[in-house]
TrEMBL record:
Chain's gene name: rlmJ
GO cellular component terms, semicolon-separated: cytosol
Subunit structure: Monomer.
Family classification: Belongs to the RlmJ family.
Site (Interaction with substrate rRNA): Y4
SUPFAM superfamilies assigned: S-adenosyl-L-methionine-dependent methyltransferases
Protein name: Ribosomal RNA large subunit methyltransferase J
Biological processes per GO annotation: rRNA base methylation
Keywords attached to this entry: Methyltransferase, RNA-binding, rRNA processing, S-adenosyl-L-methionine, Transferase
Length: 281
């Protein structure tokens, strides 16, 4: 039984980190004409009204997208500015910031004629909400398990592949399941670009994912982490957001680090960004 609903967390600091990274990766991929298959294994609803009851309950966006949005006049980084302009285009009324777009929106809004997008979602209610979103005609929504769905689509029919894996990690075994699926994915699509999100929690479960990937022999794994609080400050709850990008486009690391240097101080006095190669070339 799935209980996680992303609407409770929409627009939080982890979404900022995750979707800015995704936006930058897509921006690089679009520089070449050859077609791309995008697979989003854990899609969620696609678009989140900030005034929804669920989102209002925790208002996590106030420590995430809100301060970034408010800082518009101070933003000078080219990537952050382009990302912010894309956020504007997600708004039903451009002059008001009322909706936060999820990964299906970010993937769908730049989809070209030659590309395809598959969005997996296993929660019946979330899938229904995703079905109600206006997305590209090339976006296909599937009610089903994302990791199994990804494996079944390999090798991709297009020359290029980009996968987003963003589970809720409600079950501890998901860290290992993700690692195994990623190993299989890279066996079938050696040059595929794979983005994996993970939470930084006091229990440190993400280490299972990281060490399994390191031991697998996969090369070119870039790691980026945004910490909202110092580790150990609280004995429960997420203190940071982690992203792995396997086969990142050339230049992504420096470009994102520059963008995050602008965003991170907006998220609070203790916020901190760090990035390195978890596994090099
Ligand atoms: N990727 C989304 C975004 O960035 O907007 C947020 C996804 S949310 C963190 C995780 C989603 O995965 C939830 O909507 C949950 O219902 C869904 N989910 C959980 N287990 C799943 C599975 N095995 N296959 C597909 N979706 C699953």
């Amino acid at each position: 039984m799935l209980s996680y609903q992303h609407a409770y967390h929409a627009g939080n600091f982890a979404d900022v980190h995750k979707h800015l990274t995704l936006y930058a990766v897509i921006d690089y991929l679009l520089r070449k004409k050859s077609s791309i298959t995008y697979i989003d294994t854990h899609a969620g609803r696609g678009l989140y009204p900030l005034n929804a009851q669920e989102t209002q309950r925790l208002q996590e966006y106030r420590e995430g997208i809100w301060p970034v949005w408010q800082a518009r006049a101070e933003l000078s980084n080219e990537l952050v500015s382009a990302w912010r302009a894309a956020l504007v285009s997600a708004q039903p009324m451009p002059e008001a910031f009322t909706h936060y777009p999820g990964s299906p929106w970010w993937l769908s809004h730049s989809l070209r004629e030659q590309d395809q997008l598959r969005l997996f979602e296993l929660h019946p209610g979330e899938h229904e909400q995703l079905n109600a979103q206006e997305l590209s005609p090339h976006a296909q929504r599937v009610f089903g398990d994302g990791l199994a769905g990804l494996s079944a689509m390999l090798p991709a029919v297009t020359p290029r592949l980009c996968v987003v894996i963003d589970p809720s990690y409600e079950i501890k075994a998901e860290y290992q399941d993700v690692a195994e699926t990623v190993v299989y994915t890279l066996e079938k699509a050696r040059h595929g670009v794979v983005l994996i999100w993970y939470p930084l929690l006091p229990a440190g479960h993400h280490r299972t994912l990281l060490s399994s990937l390191k031991e697998s022999g996969i090369r070119k794994i870039w790691r980026s982490e945004l910490l909202l609080r110092k580790p150990g400050e609280q004995d429960h709850g997420m203190f940071g957001s982690g992203m792995l990008v396997i086969n990142p486009p050339w230049g992504l690391d420096k470009r994102l680090s520059a963008a995050m240097a602008e965003i991170t101080p907006l998220l609070g006095a203790d916020s901190h960004y760090q990035a390195d190669w978890w596994v090099g070339e």
